[in-house]
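By way of example, we now present a protein record of this kind:
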Amino acid sequence: MTSPSKWTDLRQRMISGFALALVGIVAVRLGGVWFTALATIAAGLMLWELAVMLGAGRKALIAFALGAGAMLAARVTSGPLEIGMLLLVAAAAATVVQRDRAICFTYGLAILLAADGLTDFREVNGGTWLFWLIFVVITTDIAGYFAGRLIGGRKFWPRISPKKTWSGTIAGWIGAAAIGMLFRTFTSAGVDLIWISAAVSLASQMGDITESAIKRRAGIKDSSNLIPGHGGLLDRFDGLLGASLAMLAFALFVKVPVVSIVLPIVGH
């Protein structure tokens, strides 16, 4: 029997989550300047939150400017020059924090690579596979939330993320695999999409755990208080960050499947 207190944050989480999902869906569907704007603002805010967590104080605004500026500069660069610029920006952002500069550099670079990579991916491959990514992450989160509270059981990694359970973790994989099966019905993707969806779900969970570890090291509960019920952007998008990097890595070695049917919601 579950305690009512386990569900006290559900309404606020659902409202905030719906609003974020709506903004993301619209931006992905429209693409172009709209998606670039979303990625630019998100990258800047996440770098700002990371810098705040690591003791940058007011200097964290510099990290925001660096992150947003890097995204804009990336639109007019490519190849090694683009990667080099992102490395320099991540290194510059690390100089404004008071501690754990290696963590700031590594995690900051992950933020920039994901935001820049998703922007490029949207331009080249359209929005369908970004919707797949979003649905995999959302399903992983929702399945994990409900399974963890309804079933409970052994903790997945109690020292780092005490709320995560094995039941919720496995439920996330199953839900993501179901999303893969769904997307196979209107794309040229083969059966591999099912296990790739589960792997991206795992990457999403690892992204969540990584951010939890940084917060635990910093001695804080939330990355910020920007989003009611969720904390900050990093608290909400940590899973998307891990999943994005995994998807972009897969895309380097696997040809992105063709969309067989163009749906009104997802477009190309």
